[in-house]
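New to this. Look over this protein:
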Amino acid sequence: MADSQKYDVLEDYQGGYRFAPIEEAQVSRAMIKRYFNTMYERAISDVVIIGAGSAGLSCAYSLATARPELKITIIEASVAPGGGAWLGGQLMTAMVIRKPADSFLREIGVEYEDEGPFVVVKHAALFTSTLLSKVLAMPNVVMMNATAVEDLIIHQDYAGKQRVAGVVTNWTLVALNHDTQSCMDPNTITAPVVVSATGHDGPMGAFSAKRLVSAGLLKELGNMRGLDMNRAEPAIVNGTREVAPGLIMTGMELSEHDGSNRMGPTFGAMIASGVKAAREAINILDNAEIVNGKIVGEMA
């Protein structure tokens, strides 16, 4: 039986539009079941990506495309994913991407104007919305937005090293109100690889870099240097790496970790750094023995 007959629905834009009937509890249960089933299933993930800006999303796309069997979980503190990639510089709309990172635009199907050494996307939101929709459509990727990473799980591993072994999460509104309410304990996600893409210093920026210092895994922050596009972009891409066992750092967070320059409103390094982070994650996973989301040894 057709839905129009079964539910007495009608798609009539002349004043007769009728929806299928629904109960309020059905809506609640539909959301609750899927959200908490996702939380249950992703309590152990293959890769957790902290931050859904341009670097984090580029990493997720590259990683999920190359390895569709991996469970990739993105944690984004904001309600709206995308970070600072919805606009270009000084609230203007065009997005500048230096070559050769323009190849990524062709891969995801975003049109641009060629200006010689760089290309221009007519609106940064076109890039971000396209990339975001492609990432979320992938069956092996889930995103929990409005969710903050409050801490890193750090274990002593099989070799006696301190290893990042996952993330500690809470809803962002809870994380922002620990000083106004009594204790509100968090949740955890275990993962053999964590990719941190939380951006440069800010309210929740450079989170993992700062936590490495307070956890004793990094002596001090390098602190981001002044704007120099020609030095900044290659430094970010080439410096994308596993900065501590189990933790890969990508994007502008690296400028705070390493003390490299900022590049301002040019986005090629964010894309290429995310792609490199995906490759670094694959390399770690392919060379590790993993049991229940924990690295317990190296592959022979």
The chain has a mean pLDDT of 96.
